[in-house]
Amino acid sequence: MSEHIVTSYDEELRELARSIAEMGGLVEQQLDEAVNALLSTNAQLAQDVILGDRQINQMHYQIEERAILVIAKRQPMAQDLRETVAAIRISHDLERVGDLGKNIAKRALAIEDQRMNHQLRRGVEHLASLGLRQLKDVLDAYGSRDVQKAISVWRSDDEIDAMYVSLFREMLTYMMEDPRNIGMCTHLLFCAKNIERIGDHATNIAETITYLVTGKQMERAATAPSAG
Description:
Layout: H1 7-40, H2 43-74, H3 78-110, H4 118-144, H5 147-155, H6 157-177, H7 182-214, H8 218-223
């Protein structure tokens, strides 16, 4: 981030970045707790996640308002403009990830009284760990403005997609084998889809980081010999 003659301008840009980091940390925690609520059938934890989504939404609105104010006051250009727009885009993706975590928590409540097949539990757990790792890595990449790390997140989205397809087929098999599994597996399928979509939002954030740092779209930066 370049320094300006008006130091308050620098502080406004730094405050945007700090707010994104804080929001990202909260979204990570919410998602982790939503998955824990699902796997441990912890109804209280699921309720906490659902209520906690309000704070994420509030942070999203505050970041948007702050970024719009920066644009109105400073009329940023080049790197400063990309910093400001990136904050808006990333907070939007994080807000959507928060919604997906809340959806998982709601599904956890819907099946809290049902016993989950051990193999399905492991499949959901593995998919969730991939989604959480993607989210953590891309937030780290934003904090350090690490384009190579962002590109790595972008490229590894295929791993989540493949795991989701495998889990989807496995659940269909369970449902065909025993109709009593249909209710639970349907809820788990929605949870798996939510996690797969979290991977998509991590990919969006990776694209935003690359544009923020390089001014290039991800496709060009990812195929360049030495992006950065």
